[in-house]
Amino acid sequence: MRQALFQEKYPIYTLEIDKSETSYGSVDEILAFFKSKIDAHPVVSYIGAFDHYAHTKSLKDGKISDQILGAKNILFCFGKELPSPCVLSVRPRSIGVAEMDDAFVITFLEAPNPMANKAMEDWALSIKDK
């Protein structure tokens, strides 16, 4: 799992998993796995899934890297407190899953809550076969 600044301002986590390192065969299977983790978590609420690939492909001027075969986000919220309206600016959470020729790339934006980051990192790392 790598931490980096995307576009020099967004703190993100990225994990690239070779297809040979996982028993998951598709973006949808990985999203279903993440949904099971979300559903089992006592605080997290599932919101939905977004097919970013299909959306971008449907746009007249949409551009998708030739390396990306599929890309979806799963949306959810860890919010158990709402101390100010500003919290809404960093919620909900999303994990992106992109399928490449030989790998899946899992990405998410760093959350202000360390517990949320730890959970998302653990979920992503558990995609790899042990």
From TrEMBL:
Entry superkingdom: Bacteria
InterPro entries in the record: DUF6858
Name of the protein this chain belongs to: Uncharacterized protein
Source organism (scientific name): Prosthecochloris marina
